[in-house]
Amino acid sequence: MTTNLVETALLPPGFRVPASRWTDPATRLRELLDSEPFVFAPGVFDPHGAELAMYHGARAVYFSGYSFAIGHLGTTDMDLYSGPEIADAARRTVSALRKFQLTMALGDPEKGVGPTPLEIPPVLVDMDGGYGNLFNVQRVTELYVNAGVAGAHLEDQVLPKRCGHIAGKALISADEMVGKLRMARAVADDLGREDFVIIARTDAVSAVDAPETTRGLDLAIDRALRYLDSGAADLVWCEFPNSDRAPTERFAAEVRKRFPDAKLGFNWSSSFKWFNDPDPTGFAELGELGYKFIFITLAAQHAMGYAFSKLLQDLNERAERAYIDLQRREWAAGDDIPTKSHHLFTGVPYHQVMGETMGASRLGKFDQELAEKAV
């Protein structure tokens, strides 16, 4: 429950936001990683999904590269977008969350909708393989840091990289990867963002080519240890090829044997058919093993794909009745769907009220003659 609410110049007098609005997102993420059994972050690809995650109390948000490829390019995860493209999308997402906090803190005074104070979840962003050499990493890290994201992860694949669950992955040398990690750390430190969180990801378990003779989980463990030993990585993430429990447990045990306080990342991947697993590894159990940052990369994409597909199927069969039924479900008593009023969700009342407060022209009140039940 939010207790420390303060005023901001971006709201009318009397309205407040959580004081954490001015906490560095990276500092906030580190606080959560240090104090919580684990931090779960749903995977999103745009501001809209991030705002929904924020509304429903997500402690952090993961900006997924694969989801970005699907949501913005309509294609797959094979390095088909550039660093500045995803950096700009991340920047717009962070900006949208800050604006959404103001929108919800105001509510809709004219319609009696009270304020909803929301914490801004720190956003961690996919940096793939850095989109080039370590100087590309330098450029993109600067873009990420200045975008206000809390952190990023880098992976050790040869470029162009591919999704961790697509065959044919090859690895760069561990030394080259360490150089990229050190560059990312140096950029963040130079910009005064020492808390910027860097996750080192290894795809060694299922890579078909690597400079080392070792393969599989043993190579992943060795790589993770080297990345932690560099001092540049705050967490390590091993991309597993399936939901099997044993490799997950062994990786954690071996890494923490050398680094007892090591924090691990875990992709509770949408590529795995968890519903076929008789004993799926749960979030709490992963947290106990040391996996402190847990995320579902394609959560928003799969949820949107399922829900929108169902609506489209229904529209094909029942035309307008399908959409009427959707609205009934949206507005059902007791169901908290923040997007049911797209005006409130996107901040129309905020813009109206602040327009009046700041003295903008042509930003008056809504037409009170319009019937509430129809608008």
Structural features, described:
With 375 residues, the chain is α/β, with parallel strands linked by helices. The protein has a single domain (5-297), classed as TIM Barrel (Alpha-Beta Barrel), CATH 3.20.20. Helices cover 44% and strands 12% of the residues. It has 13 helices and 10 strands. It has helices spanning 25-35, 47-55, 65-73, 83-106, 134-147, 174-190, 216-229, 245-258, 283-289, 299-318, 320-330, 342-346, 348-358, and strands at 5-7, 16-18, 39-44, 61-63, 123-126, 151-155, 197-202, 235-238, 263-267, 291-296. A hairpin with an 8-residue loop joins strand 1 and strand 2. The chain is globular and about 70 Å long.
CATH architecture descriptor text? Alpha-Beta Barrel
Give the domain tally. Answer: 1
Radius of gyration: 22 Å
Helical coverage, percent range? 40-55%
Strands ordered across the widest β-sheet: 3-4-5-6-7-8-9-10
In the CATH hierarchy, what is the class? Answer: Alpha Beta
Strand content: 5-15%
Low-confidence stretches: none
**How many beta-strand elements?**
10
Mean pLDDT: 93
* Span of the ends, CA to CA: 32 Å
What general form does the structure show? Answer: globular
Count of helix runs = 13
**Helix-strand pattern, N to C?**
EEHEHEHHEHEHEHEHEHEHHHH
How is the main sheet built?
8 strands, parallel, barrel
